[in-house]
Amino acid sequence: MSTSLSRPARPFGRALCAMITPFTPDGGLDLDEAGKLAARLVGEGCDGLVLNGTTGESPTTTDAEKTALVRAVREAVGPGPSVLAGVGTADTRHTAELARQAEAAGADGLLVVTPYYSRPPQSAVEAHFLKVADATGLPVMVYDIPGRTGTRVETPTLRRLAEHPRIVAVKDCAYDLLGSARVIAETPLAYYSGCEEMNLPLYAVGGAGYVSTVANVTPRQLRAVLDAFDAGDTAEAARLNARLLPLAERMMAAGLPGTVTVKALLGGPVREPLQPADRESVDGLRGLYEALLQAESVV
């Protein structure tokens, strides 16, 4: 008997990857490699892909590159999987324009981060999201990551945003499980964990799934945690989740950005100001990845 909760709608599926943006050795956008990576991720269990986000090095890609990436990935994966475009900037007008470009390029939804650096009050945060949501016909995932933006999307603001018909989801990097559980209980917003260590806890209180950087490397293994939980085997879900934690911790909490650690494992350059991982870091990541694969083969 399944123990899964009665959940809100999952507008973009359960298992989403915050996809890296591949670059050529000379630093250009590598659309061929992006298409191949996108197809592989979908083939290994991702319901959707989130492009041009933090992991996608969006601060260093041009508007034209962002649009080209959405088009290339849309073509590579076809109409089935969700393709979300990160369009967040510190400028509401610019964000709205990127949203329109993403819609024209074939995106299924928008990832919109809280305006950063200027640290707007909650009334301005709310106005920003509403204006972007009104700019297109696409559904919006609010990206709440105060550790990077300096501004939280507070619970009352989220309750009000949930009344907009196109604001349908939250990528949650706020590290406030109580607050998230309250919004899940009180609104129809679909909550996606944006922090690997919160994937299973958030799912257990009614979350919709995850948007994962680590999924670039372990898409099948991350999805298996949710599959086990939905099948009612919470002990197996916990076991599979625990098996992933050493690699996830090294990739996301050991001092290097997730983009850098993913590319250390998959290959390919990063754009400055990011720098590639050093040899010691690469060896450590590869060791943990190989240990994960070995543990799977033993079971």
From TrEMBL:
Top EC class for this record: lyase
Family: Belongs to the DapA family.
Assembly: Homotetramer; dimer of dimers.
Organism: Streptomyces flavochromogenes
Site (Part of a proton relay during catalysis): 54, 117
MF GO annotations: 4-hydroxy-tetrahydrodipicolinate synthase activity
Active site: 143, 171
Pathway: Amino-acid biosynthesis; L-lysine biosynthesis via DAP pathway; (S)-tetrahydrodipicolinate from L-aspartate: step 3/4
Any Pfam family the entry gives: DHDPS
Lineage top rank: taxon: Bacteria
Catalysed reaction, written as an equation: L-aspartate 4-semialdehyde + pyruvate = (2S,4S)-4-hydroxy-2,3,4,5-tetrahydrodipicolinate + H2O + H(+)
Subcellular location, principal: cytoplasm
Residues binding pyruvate, per UniProt: 55, 211
Protein name: 4-hydroxy-tetrahydrodipicolinate synthase
PROSITE patterns xrefs: DHDPS_1, DHDPS_2
The protein's Enzyme Commission number: 4.3.3.7
Task performed by this protein: Catalyzes the condensation of (S)-aspartate-beta-semialdehyde [(S)-ASA] and pyruvate to 4-hydroxy-tetrahydrodipicolinate (HTPA).
